[in-house]
Design brief:
InterPro entries: CheY-like_superfamily, NreC/VraR/RcsB-like_REC, Sig_transdc_resp-reg_receiver, Tscrpt_reg_LuxR_C, WalR-like. With about 210 residues, this protein is of the alpha/beta class. It has helices at about 10-20, 35-45, 60-70, 85-95, 105-120, 125-140, 150-160, 165-175, 175-190, 195-205, and strands at about 1-5, 25-35, 50-55, 75-80, 100, 125. Helix 4 (about 85-95) links the parallel strand 4 and strand 5.
Length: about 210
């Protein structure tokens, strides 16, 4: 059973998401919060698998709330917002969020996204990913010392940044999916990254990947 905390300052949105999630046989909502401070308190109390977090909330914004939650807990954060703005994507992922969706997401896509995040994967809405890449290329790129990655690990990192799954990377490199998982685990450990979402941030910030115009 996947335990979820829902945090959104709009009551109708908060209750709507909770109702959709509670209707699933493998998901249970353990708490709902109307602001970021309450979200942090409930996360520490219930230790949910996934925190579904709005960006703009009173008392404490969703990004700072996520920063505090993931610093103390194994909880994984899925950000959801009305605002398709690049800075929010960057800040949320840098704070430790594992996924980012817009509020117009379909109900079953929301449920599947929670499942993906709970499994330990990362998830970005496609339209957000495109804007994220453009923003990194235009404003956020800066030099980092090269990491001690092997040529194959660098190749895998570039493919992760393109949004490919482990299965797709395995097909691209003509290796087994298990081999890809091993490469991903090693490069995350070497870079000190939490998950694939942070790997995408690293790849574009460091200039390892440059998007096509």
């Amino acid at each position: 059973m996947i335990s979820v905390l829902v945090a959104d300052d709009q009551r109708s949105v908060r209750h709507g998401f909770a109702a959709v999630l509670n209707a699933q046989p493998d998901v249970t909502v353990v708490g709902t919060a109307a602001d970021g401070a309450e979200a942090v308190r409930l996360a520490r109390e219930f230790r949910p698998d996934v925190a579904l977090m709005d960006i703009r909330m009173p008392e404490l914004n969703g990004i700072e709330a996520v920063r505090r939650i993931v610093a103390d807990l194994p909880t994984r954060a899925l950000m959801i917002t009305t605002f398709d703005l690049d800075d929010y994507v960057y800040d949320a992922l840098s704070a430790g969020a594992s996924g980012f969706l817009l509020k117009d997401v379909r109900a079953m896509d929301l449920v599947e996204s929670v499942r993906v995040i709970a499994r330990g994967d990362a998830l970005l809405a496609p339209q957000v990913t495109r804007r994220l890449i453009a923003e990194f290329a235009r404003q956020r790129s800066r030099s980092h010392p090269p990491a001690d990655l092997t040529p194959r690990e660098l190749e895998v990192l570039r493919l992760i940044a393109r949004g490919l799954s482990n299965a797709e990377i395995a097909g691209e490199l003509v290796v087994t999916e298990h081999t890809v998982k091993t490469h991903v685990a090693r490069l995350l450990a070497k870079l000190g990254l939490r998950d694939r979402a942070q790997a995408i941030v690293y790849a574009y910030e460091s200039g390892l990947v440059v998007p096509h115009a």
